[in-house]
Amino acid sequence: MATLLVRNATVLVTMDGARREISGGGLFARDGVIVEVGPSASLPESADEVLDLSGHVLLPGLVNCHHHLDQTLTRALPAAQNVNLFRWLGAHYRLWAARTPEASRTATLVGLAELALSGCTTCFDHAYVFRNGCAVDDQIAAAREIGLRFMVSRGSMSLGQSQGGLPPDECVEDEDAILADCERVIARYHDAAPGARLQIALAPCSPFSVTPELMRASAALAREKGVRLHTHLAETVDEERYTLARFGKRPVAYMEELGWLGDDVWFAHAVHVNAHEIGCFRGAGVGVCHCPSSNMRLASGIAPVRAYRAAGVKVGLGVDGSASNDGNNLLTEARQAMLLARLQMSLRPPEGPDTTLSTSDPSRDHEWMSAREALELATLGGASVLGRTDIGALAPGYCADFFALRLDDVSFAGGLADPVAAALFCTPGRAAFTYVHGRPVVAHGEVVTIELPAVVAEHNTHAARLAALSGVA
Ligand code: ZN
User: Fold this and answer.
1) How many domains does the chain have?
2) Is residue 114 part of a domain?
3) Residue 361 belongs to what domain range?
4) What is the whole-number distance in angstroms between the Cα of residue 204 and the centre of ligand 1?
5) Is the dihedral of CA 380, 386, 389, 391 positive or negative?
6) What distance in angstroms lies between residue 126's CA and the mean position of ligand 1's atoms?
7) How far apart are the CA of 321 and the centre of ligand 1, in A?
8) What is the pLDDT of residues 157-210, one digit of tens each?
9) Is this structure's pTM higher than 0.85?
10) 8 C-alpha vs ligand 1 centroid, how far in Å?
11) In angstroms, what is the span from residue 210 Cα to ligand 1's centroid?
12) Which letter does DSSP use for residue 92 in this model?
């Protein structure tokens, strides 16, 4: 029985039911699970490990609901810098398919390291290109090595260009092989128990890279095995045109026809939806992963997060692909969500009949996304989207997943009147400590579970090989 005592945080943000913020707060955990949270004086006086967080703000670990860690190999690719999603994918597909298992390992480590340094403790990775000897096992081994809580999809693409899909034929897989590997990966790795550190989801990639048959078969298999379902949806106007032309339906109606609207499903992006479709998500219990940086980077659009929240749709945050962001910083992503929601206020018609209302009108005060609401999206919101009730808050029974920021960092200078809000309003700083299941992944601002400089160096040799394939010397 290993115990951990964290104490003296200047402010501890619980995200519990009462949204308590505790001055001088701390927590006591046993075997990676929180037993007590409260003022430090109320906690046990000793433990196997004691972490004093005087001068820090302590927050629940952030939950990343949509990512593609392998894309860390292809960040800022010249051919993909100034193009929208379909052309961006076209510039990348063959490079991703050409990665090796060793490259995938280093990309996973680098991406997760950067995420951990931003306070992220749980990451879902939407892996979907499995060629050249790569398998989801490569990433699972890497995630275990660095120590983040990991959920990964045995994703898939099966609809190549010759069949009317977007990806080149050499980047897609046979559907029987996909489904067999899905079964293998679920049986070998999926942990459904509370406190699980590794879970599997099924995630055929998108309506334009997967056949309807594979979408249906994936849903049936996921439900038979009790794992969650995920895909990209309604990301761009191009996708909407595609499903209308090919299937005669808008993306959400197409997914409904395939049996994909359920409370075991979450969609990445969900930018281009109407009021009826938002109601469908709410009615079915579908979750949404908002990826603001990627949506800006690719000029995809602005997801109606305020409308989702008002309707009661579950919303979490995702960094999305390292090559459409091009970072792995979830705290920055929470900041982007806050800022983009505010920009959206100026772009859309105000609520109510008076179309002359400006953003300065007090009747619109409820539309402003606060820093705390953005933090909620990144913690509890993400947990709900991933179907977890044991992460996203610091409260008894929850996993001891947390991070701390130093308040004497230059990024907080002048923002100490409200350090919780300053964590987003000011430039998001680097986590001083990030703990997953009661164990440190980041300590004193450095990743402690892997030799990061060596991994980055190896990663960059793999990345250079892929860049050369793209014609970049
Ligand atoms: Zn994505």
Assistant:
1) 2
2) yes
3) 62-385
4) 11
5) negative
6) 7
7) 5
8) 999 999 999 999 999 999 999 999 999 999 999 999 999 999 999 999 999 999
9) yes
10) 39
11) 14
12) H
